[in-house]
């Protein structure tokens, strides 16, 4: 189980090694993603709160990166954080996420990216529920929900 100290250590020193890497040009990403997905994943945009696909969705399944289809989160770790975006307590694996300090918009936060393709996912905060206290606040545009039988949603 990851804790806030682990997140800060990864952001400051070194992120976990990804299981694989996916690298594409901006033109290749633009051809594969919708304009909204491209803005979030590749340009670090944020989608509007509460008006996104997975904010109020709690169906079972897994959440994969929409860019490279790497497993990022499991629905068992999703919870209602009232933040306006899907929130999770833990990533699916320690190596699923890459962490970076983000001081944009006059805030100090930790940005989370897909560790395989580098796509922007959102941010992680130390105000989540016990036992780890983490809240991964993630843009729906960066995710695709997959049911256990492999069906996309």
TrEMBL record:
Domain MsrB positions: 26-148
Catalytic class of the enzyme: oxidoreductase
Listed GO MF terms: peptide-methionine (R)-S-oxide reductase activity
Keywords, sorted A to Z: Oxidoreductase
Pfam families documented for this protein: SelR
EC number, UniProt record: 1.8.4.12
Catalysed reactions, semicolon-separated: L-methionyl-[protein] + [thioredoxin]-disulfide + H2O = L-methionyl-(R)-S-oxide-[protein] + [thioredoxin]-dithiol
Name of protein: peptide-methionine (R)-S-oxide reductase
Organism from which the protein derives: Hymenobacter cellulosivorans
């Amino acid at each position: 189980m990851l804790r806030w100290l682990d997140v800060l250590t990864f952001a400051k020193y070194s992120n976990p090694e990804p299981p694989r890497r996916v690298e594409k040009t901006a033109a290749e990403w633009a051809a594969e993603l919708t304009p909204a997905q491209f803005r979030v994943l590749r340009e670090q945009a944020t989608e509007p709160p509460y008006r996104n696909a997975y904010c109020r969705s709690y169906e079972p399944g897994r959440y994969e990166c929409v860019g490279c289809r790497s497993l990022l989160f499991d629905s068992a770790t999703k919870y209602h954080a009232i933040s306006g975006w899907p929130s999770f307590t833990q990533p699916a694996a320690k190596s699923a996420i890459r962490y970076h300090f983000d001081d944009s918009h006059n805030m100090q936060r930790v940005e989370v990216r897909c560790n395989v393709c580098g796509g922007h996912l959102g941010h992680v905060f130390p105000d989540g529920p016990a036992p780890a206290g983490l809240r991964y606040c993630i843009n729906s545009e960066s995710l695709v929900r997959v049911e256990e039988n492999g069906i996309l949603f």
